[in-house]
Design goal:
Elements: H1 11-15, E1 23-27, E2 30-34, H2 39-57, E3 63-67, E4 72-75, E5 78-80, E6 84-88, E7 105-109, H3 114-128, E8 132-136, E9 142-146, E10 152-156, E11 159-161, E12 169-171
Parallel strand pairs: 7-8
Antiparallel strand pairs: 1-2, 1-5, 3-6, 4-5, 6-7, 8-9, 9-10, 11-12
Length: 175
């Protein structure tokens, strides 16, 4: 019986793949195919993105808010697609290829592969310098990971506030 290791690819090979609506990520040479999200996952994600956009519209700071499928380069050979992200600063509308700015905030609505969302992606985000990660359960509970290497976790039910986004309040019953 053979247990051949999967073929690893370079970032250049990954970026040369045909455009797709599949949620493909590159992590240290391995291509990871995320399952298609459920309707509930997408509903929760849209509500969070809308709340972030509403917050951004009320502040003078330029921010970039994005959502999957959109590639973000966290390091060479590490191109992931956070469900949503926010970066302080603008990204040109005509930008091509992966976003090359490390997000200040990443959001992961938990899927069937919770360990990948909670652990693997959190560690990649922490190593890259992401300041905050929200892992969101579709029951309306959010874990807000922050601090050095995203090692501090607060569980929020009811409403979410964060010092990262002044005056931001997310009513979790809306999720």
């Amino acid at each position: 019986m053979s247990s051949a290791a999967p073929r690893l690819i370079t970032e250049e090979e990954f970026l040369a793949l045909p455009e797709s609506t599949e949620r493909l990520e590159l992590l240290d040479g391995e291509v990871i195919l995320a399952p298609s999200p459920s309707y509930r996952h997408q509903l929760v994600l849209r509500r969070i993105v809308r709340a972030l956009e509403d917050w951004a519209a009320c502040h003078d700071d330029e921010v970039t808010i994005g959502m999957a499928p959109l590639d973000v380069r966290f390091a060479p050979g590490r191109i992931l697609q956070p469900d949503a992200f926010l970066c302080f600063g603008a990204t040109p509308d005509a930008h091509e290829g992966p976003i090359n700015i490390i997000p200040d905030l990443c959001v992961e609505v938990l899927s069937t592969n919770r360990a990948y969302d909670r652990m693997t992606k959190r560690l990649v985000y922490a190593e890259a310098g992401v300041r905050e990660l929200w892992t969101v359960s579709t029951d309306g509970t959010i874990e807000r990971w922050c601090g050095e290497r995203l090692s501090h976790c607060e569980t929020h039910q009811g409403r979410l506030t964060t010092p990262l986004l002044a005056d931001f309040v997310l009513d979790l019953s809306d999720l």
